[in-house]
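In response to reviewer comment 3 from the previous cycle, which asked for concrete evidence that the modeling workflow produces usable outputs, we include below a single protein chain processed end to end. The sequence was submitted unchanged, and the resulting structure tokens are shown without manual editing.
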Amino acid sequence: MQMAPRELSRLERAALEHHLLALEAEDRRLRFGVNLPDQAIREYVSGINFEHDAVFGIFDDCLNLVAAAHLARCEGHAELGVSVLPEWRGRGAGAALLARSHTHARNWGIRALFMHCLSENGAMMHLARKQGMCIVTEQGETDAWLELPPADASSYAHELLAERLGLFDFALKRQLYAVRSIADALRLKPGTA
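The workflow returned the following structure tokens.
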């Protein structure tokens, strides 16, 4: 199954919050380095500057955000955090989010992509290796760096196409969800059997 991440807007902050709150304690620890309580998750999400950073998401057929990546623009590099709900792991969502973030950071003019995670976070370590990132592990924590080439016409075109594909995927899912909702309502309506 091809995953089609799209960039989220500040209007979808609630969907991101819901996604991160759905993570179990261990998944929160692996994503943030500590098991953040619900209030800390809410504060983290409310503090994201969608005009400065980028947030990408993948939605399921019921329009639930099942995977997300926060690409934070920093001094001279961009830092990436990725989360995928357990039932969606192993399907390529993390790799799709990493690839989308890589291209976006490159087009920002950023020269390095950075990920920080606990060394036991096997999924992130796998993604970092697969992307060819330079990995340094020290005292139970891992930093992964990837030098980014300068943006060019190809990278801009690739990102434009990826965003259009993500928007199309979401629009199609939204239409199918509406049709299913109407069909379900008609089935429940008395006297329509």
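The longest strand covers residues 65-73. We consider this sufficient to address the reviewer's concern, and the full set will be provided in the supplementary archive.
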